[in-house]
Amino acid sequence: MSTANTAFPIQHEPELLGKTVVVIGGSAGIGFETARQARAQGATLILTARNPERLQRAANELNAVSNAAFDATDPASLDRFFRELPMIDHVMVTAGRPYYARLRDMDFAQVRRLVDEHLLLVLQIARNAVNKVRPGGTLLFMSGTAGRRAAVGLGVTSALTAALPALIGNLALELAPIRVNLIAAGFVDTPLSAQLLGDELEQRRNQLRATLPIRRVVEPADVAALAVHIMVNTALTGATYDIDGGQQFVAA
Ligand SMILES: NC(=O)c1ccc[n+]([C@@H]2O[C@H](COP(=O)([O-])OP(=O)(O)OC[C@H]3O[C@@H](n4cnc5c(N)ncnc54)[C@H](OP(=O)(O)O)[C@@H]3O)[C@@H](O)[C@H]2O)c1
């Protein structure tokens, strides 16, 4: 006699039902995919980015309740955005891009932009979030694993990579019971990576497929799944979560 497997599939309630998720940088790449997965888990979405047309397209596709086009590194615009927000549960921040340059070639305007996007923006969002994020919600920021190894051209990126986990720990204490967390990614196959690598994108993907311990490229969906988990798991605060397919341990 054969016994059939149980005919009762496990039903999960959507994990972000009733929660409002703000994604600053939600029109593309990791931010867009995080918004998409949060929506699939029942979240109400509020999206921001600079380019209004691309943002509107993303907001329509994901059925966001609202969207706002502004540069997140402009403190006045950021303050206004937060002032007009209802109470929310989670903020994911994916604004920003890297800057690589040898000391002798360094453009200090670019260095200031990097510090603005990856350090001051964290502080400004943290201060704004105090009155808007419900207890137990998380602020979630992005960093990388590549800057952990010294390399010519990585100076400022390395310095920020080292600074952010320390800042996140401090903010987690200061903002409690709001949680504060950091995701450190390696190469992720996003529009930003495509733009940075141009014609060399496919070659880079192949190199990573051959050398990464996971033998595949990390996708925005991988990072988004981690981001949604950090939103849902209320034990997580003050920590940095690596997601790079093992890239930091190989010469890739
Ligand atoms: N991709 C990677 O390999 C990788 C690895 C490690 C870390 N990261 C970091 O992860 C974050 C997301 O990367 P991604 O690859 O998903 O980038 P992406 O594909 O370029 O998407 C970035 C999103 O943020 C928005 N944005 C950028 N600057 C902004 C600003 N100043 N104010 C408001 N919105 C802004 C963009 O829209 P608009 O351009 O219209 O503003 C877009 O919606 C970045 O901080 C990046 O440095 C990426």
Outline the structure in words.
Helices cover 42% and strands 15% of the residues. The chain has 252 residues and is α/β, with parallel strands linked by helices. The longest helix has 22 residues, at 108-129. The chain has one domain: NAD(P)-binding Rossmann-like Domain (Rossmann fold, 3-Layer(aba) Sandwich), CATH 3.40.50. A 7-stranded parallel sheet has the order 3-2-1-4-5-6-7, with helices on both faces. It has helices at 29-40, 52-62, 75-83, 108-129, 155-175, 191-197, 201-211, 220-232; strands spanning 20-24, 44-49, 66-69, 90-93, 138-144, 179-185, 240-243. Strand 1 (20-24), helix 1 and strand 2 form a beta-alpha-beta unit. The radius of gyration is 19 Å and the shape is globular. The termini are far apart. Bound molecules: NADP nicotinamide-adenine-dinucleotide phosphate. NADP nicotinamide-adenine-dinucleotide phosphate binds next to helix 1, strand 2, strand 5 and helix 6.
Characteristic key phrases:
8 helices; 252 residues; Rossmann fold; binds NADP nicotinamide-adenine-dinucleotide phosphate; seven-stranded parallel β-sheet; alpha/beta
Give the uncertain stretches in residue-range form: none
Report the CATH topology name. Answer: Rossmann fold
Topology as H/E string?
A: EHEHEHEHEHEHHHE
Q: From the coordinates shown, what is the CATH architecture? A: 3-Layer(aba) Sandwich
* Cα-to-Cα separation, first versus last residue: 54 Å
Q: What value does the Rg take, in angstroms? A: 19 Å
Mean pLDDT: 95
